[in-house]
Design a protein that fits this description.
Helix content: 40-55%
Number of helices: 19
Structural class: mainly alpha
Strand order of the largest sheet: 1-3
Low-confidence stretches: 1-25
Shape: globular
Number of strands: 4
Strand content: under 5%
Radius of gyration: 22 Å
């Protein structure tokens, strides 16, 4: 009977967030005892792995094109995102699975709170905040406070404003930071930080605060309320310790031993890199500065690198038969392709905060450390000459910071697209054959299932946001 109740619970939750909150029936068959008395620790590795893997796979298609890293050269389906032609499938991609994993993180938190496990509560709050920030940054206003309540009878959740969601995130991250007990190791395996060794718990706390920095910087343009919060946060390093080096970075290092394999490990080679090509602008940016990461990411064409034009003329077959640089196959097995938040991103954020007058410090020092740590993350040890290149060396501008941050965020989910929309950098190319009047998409439209199953709340949120199309700006965009 208990097994049936659990299945019903998940089916109701599925309806509640509109095809987003089921569990695997295979898991129930394989481990039926796991549903009787699960611990918070039982959710950590698998839920985190599933979330990172899904984000990476979708970003490989969506983010890379919206941020003009790559081009799909076929002319059907989702492959025309680089032309700003967004299909229904693209809109669905980041809705269902993320909400399903959000349910897991919330359940992880509930179980931890029941057992008064401060560390698992803090970790669950952090991961929940990270995931809902991804969802809302892609769509804008989304269900959050009212979501995942199918068992309670709520199958048509209201949509929170993005401001409400961010305000809740900051409360949750503040609580998480205060909860960590650095003297107690985690009871269970931790594939992110190995915090079943107590000394590594500080890495979780530092990630919590680095994530807070990312999100506070994302909304600081919304006024003094958030700028003051950011200033206070940055002025109190003892209370809010940040990452110290690459070892503190949040990367799910794939073991490539089943089940924790690289997101693309089992994907056919042609599906991984056969249709996707690096863009002309991205290849040009890296090649012009002799970026040592280029040969680690891109294949050569002859003796050099050749990128494909963004929005190439669809009627010209030459572009679909030519040779262009694509992803090297080693990335399919790379342990570095599970990036959640690198130390280098944090350092870029600190450099930007100094330039914007939000903290006191040496922006060049933070910037140089950011660039260097990104290179060393990818195994590059000779970093001095790259930093001296005139198009790389620090020049005191936000544009220069964002230009290198954009490159460093390669492979980090949707963060390139988020940062382009936030800052306007780097400047994007307007291709010859573009849709949406050449306007860079500000968000993805809601999936059709929202209109079908939650029409009243869909109508309300669309009326509030001013539409449901690519050009409706999310709240933090200026």
């Amino acid at each position: 009977m208990k097994r049936n109740k659990v299945i019903i619970y998940y089916l109701l939750a599925f309806i509640g967030v509109l095809s987003s909150c089921t569990t695997s029936l295979d898991d129930l068959r394989e481990k039926p005892e796991g549903i009787d008395n699960p611990g918070a620790s039982s959710f950590l590795n698998n839920s985190l792995y599933q979330t990172v893997t899904h984000i990476q796979r979708q970003a490989h298609t969506i983010n890379t094109q919206l941020s003009q890293v790559a081009v799909f050269r076929e002319l059907q389906g989702n492959n025309q995102i680089h032309r700003y032609q967004i299909s229904a499938g693209t809109s669905n991609a980041m809705w269902a699975t993320p909400y399903r994993q959000l349910l897991n993180f919330k359940e992880m938190r509930r179980l931890a709170e029941e057992k008064k496990d401060a560390n698992y509560t803090a970790i669950a709050l952090t991961l929940e905040s990270w995931l809902i920030s991804n969802i809302t940054d892609i769509y804008g206003d989304v269900p959050y406070s009212d979501a995942l309540k199918g068992m309670e009878g709520n199958t048509t959740p209201k949509f929170d404003t993005q401001k409400q969601i961010y305000d809740t995130i900051f409360v949750n991250l503040e609580r998480a930071n205060s909860l960590y007990d650095l003297t107690k190791p985690l009871a269970g395996d931790d594939l992110l930080y190995n915090a079943n060794v107590a000394a590594n718990l500080t890495k979780w706390k530092r990630f919590t605060n680095a994530l807070t920095l990312r999100l506070l910087m994302r909304v600081q343009g919304k006024g003094a309320e958030y700028q003051d919060k950011l200033r206070d946060f940055l002025a109190n390093s003892a209370k809010y310790p940040l990452m110290r080096n690459n070892d503190d970075g949040a990367t799910f290092f794939y073991t490539n031993v089943t089940p924790f394999v690289n997101a693309f490990y089992d994907v056919r080679d042609l599906s991984f890199n056969g249709s996707i090509k690096f863009s002309h602008s991205f290849i040009g940016k890296l090649a012009s500065t002799n970026d040592p990461r280029l040969p680690l990411w891109a294949t050569t064409v002859g003796s050099g690198y050749v990128g494909m034009p963004i929005g190439y003329p669809a009627v010209d077959p030459a572009y679909r038969t030519g040779s262009y640089s694509t992803y090297i196959l080693d990335l399919k097995r790379s342990k570095y392709f599970g990036d959640i938040m690198q130390y280098s991103e944090q350092q870029f954020l600190l450099a930007e905060a100094v330039v914007r007058g939000l903290m006191v410090g040496n922006a060049k020092t933070y910037y140089d450390d950011a660039v260097t740590s990104s290179l060393t993350y990818w195994g590059i040890t000779n970093t001095t000459s790259f930093l001296l290149h005139p198009d790389v060396s620090y020049n005191g501008t936000v544009e220069r910071i964002m230009d290198q941050k954009y490159v460093a965020l390669f492979g980090n989910g949707f963060q390139q697209w988020h940062e382009i929309r936030r800052t306007g950098y780097p400047t994007l190319v307007l291709g010859e054959d573009m849709h949406n009047d050449g306007k860079h998409p500000a968000r993805l439209p809601y999936p059709a299932s929202v209109l079908l199953y939650n029409k009243t709340n869909y109508d309300a949120v669309v009326n509030r946001m001013g539409g449901d199309n690519l050009n409706v700006k999310v709240w933090w965009m200026n």
